[in-house]
């Protein structure tokens, strides 16, 4: 919790220093060899030249800009030698720079060797992206479902646990200089400790006072708003990448192009979620969690320490949410509101799979992630989340208890 306190107590300006605005990038050829001597001219949107950067022996160019605003960057094709731009229309890029942001520019070179397989190729590409996104949603949604199953709390602050994991990983990785892999382990531990601290310091006292579920729901909404704007104050409104794996060249697997970090993300998600499933089915703690989720009173009368089980649920829920936040930040960069943007999709996955069931959250989140990406075949990308909620409504009309939920008799 010491690292958590340092993160929350140190303003973003003190964490990262007074960062100047700028642009940077790397120019490499088809063999991933750096290209030296390439000139990139940066101008204001009104045409006033800011300066010209030249790539060094490592192929990297950097240029500081006078402040936030809209800019253009133009690559001098005459300095490319025998190389050519993959898309000649992309010789000039238009982009905004926010306060404190160092913007990364990409100028793809060469003809490229990827063969696009028409509609089938696009379907396969979206299928892979849907699997990756669905696994990230499932990672965060399992804890949300278990918390509801064991306590009855609909935790609207769970999205902030996702954000906290990403921010903790970014802080340890960028500010403390720890490589992203051990920084992720620190972030997961910090997320678990934050979850236990929330239960011991807030939710358990409220439960013992007999606070109703509606009141707890409202408190969770208020807590989420409070923590979200603490994150905004500490981290700032800009998106920021991790120090490693921010930009990777995609690997072509037939009609599918996927970055190595996405392959690792999918593999890690599958391993972790499979481990969660085995733990719930085979370990004493997992069986106790399922027993408390099924009937807390009966579990208590059977000798199970319900409070201890709930504390364990909060720990693992926070740890899984933190891990999902790091994976999401690796895909989309880290932002102060990334968790709340994922929250509605987590709820969709939990409800679709069946409230209170961990395996239902896994299946429902996977379906939501797949449908979100595949729906862009027929709808605009801006409407893909709407499509996921529409399929949620349609399935619940047929099966109100969700895919893996058990029907309950009322009255």
Give a brief outline of the structure.
The protein has helices at 2-9, 12-16, 118-151, 158-175, 180-208, 213-235, 260-282, 284-294, 296-301, 306-332, 338-353, 358-374, 384-398, and strands at residues 22-26, 39-44, 49-54, 60-64, 69-75, 92-97, 102-104, 251-253, 256-258. The protein is an alpha+beta fold and 411 residues long. The chain folds into two domains: 22-104, Immunoglobulins (Immunoglobulin-like, Sandwich); 118-398, ABC transporter involved in vitamin B12 uptake, BtuC.
Tell me what the structure shows:
- There is one protein chain.
- The chain has 411 residues and is of the alpha+beta class.
- The chain has two domains: 83 residues, Sandwich (Immunoglobulin-like), CATH 2.60.40; 281 residues, ABC transporter involved in vitamin B12 uptake, BtuC (Orthogonal Bundle), CATH 1.10.3470.
- Helices cover 56% and strands 11% of the residues.
- It is built from 13 helices and nine strands.
- The strands form three sheets. The protein has a four-stranded antiparallel beta sheet with strand order 3-2-5-6, with no helix packed on it. A three-stranded mixed beta sheet has the order 4-1-7, with no helix packed on it. A two-stranded antiparallel sheet has the order 8-9.
- A hairpin with a 4-residue loop joins strand 2 and strand 3.
- The two termini are 46 Å apart.
- The N terminus is likely disordered.
């Amino acid at each position: 919790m010491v690292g958590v306190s340092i993160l929350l107590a140190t303003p973003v300006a003190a964490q990262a220093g007074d960062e100047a605005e700028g642009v940077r990038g790397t120019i490499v050829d088809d063999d991933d060899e750096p290209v030296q001597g390439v000139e990139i001219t940066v101008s204001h949107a009104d045409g006033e030249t800011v300066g010209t950067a030249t790539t060094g022996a490592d192929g990297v160019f950097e240029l500081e800009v006078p402040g936030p605003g809209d800019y253009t960057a133009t690559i001098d094709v005459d300095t490319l030698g025998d190389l050519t731009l993959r898309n000649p229309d992309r010789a000039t890029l238009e982009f905004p720079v926010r306060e404190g942001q160092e913007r990364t520019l990409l100028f793809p070179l060469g003809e490229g060797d990827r063969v696009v397989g028409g509609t089938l190729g696009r379907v396969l590409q979206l299928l892979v992206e849907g699997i990756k996104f669905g696994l990230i949603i499932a990672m965060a949604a399992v804890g949300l479902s278990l918390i509801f199953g064991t306590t009855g709390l609909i935790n609207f602050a769970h999205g902030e646990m996702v954000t906290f994991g990403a921010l903790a990983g970014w802080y340890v990785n960028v500010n403390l200089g720890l490589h992203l892999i051990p920084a992720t382990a620190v972030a997961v531990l910090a997320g678990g400790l934050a979850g236990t601290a929330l239960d011991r310091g807030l939710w358990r006292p409220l439960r013992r006072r007999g606070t109703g579920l509606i009141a707890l729901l409202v408190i969770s909404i208020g807590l989420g708003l409070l923590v979200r704007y603490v994150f905004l104050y500490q981290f700032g409104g800009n998106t920021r990448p991790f120090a490693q794996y921010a930009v990777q060249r995609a690997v072509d697997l037939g009609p599918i192009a996927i970055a190595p970090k996405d392959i690792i993300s999918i593999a890690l998600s599958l391993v972790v979620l499979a481990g969660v499933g085995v733990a719930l089915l085979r370990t004493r703690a997992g069986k106790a969690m399922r027993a408390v989720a099924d009937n807390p009173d009966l579990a208590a009368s059977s000798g199970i320490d319900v409070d201890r089980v709930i504390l364990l649920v909060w720990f693992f829920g926070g740890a899984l949410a933190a891990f999902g936040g790091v994976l999401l930040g690796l895909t989309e960069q880290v932002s102060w509101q990334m968790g709340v943007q994922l929250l509605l999709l987590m709820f969709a996955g939990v409800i679709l799979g069946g409230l209170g069931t961990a395996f239902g959250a896994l299946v429902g989140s996977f379906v939501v992630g797949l449908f979100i990406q595949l729906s862009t075949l027929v709808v605009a990308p801006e409407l893909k989340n709407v499509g996921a909620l529409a399929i949620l409504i349609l399935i619940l009309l047929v099966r109100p208890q969700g895919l893996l939920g058990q029907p309950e008799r009322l009255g």
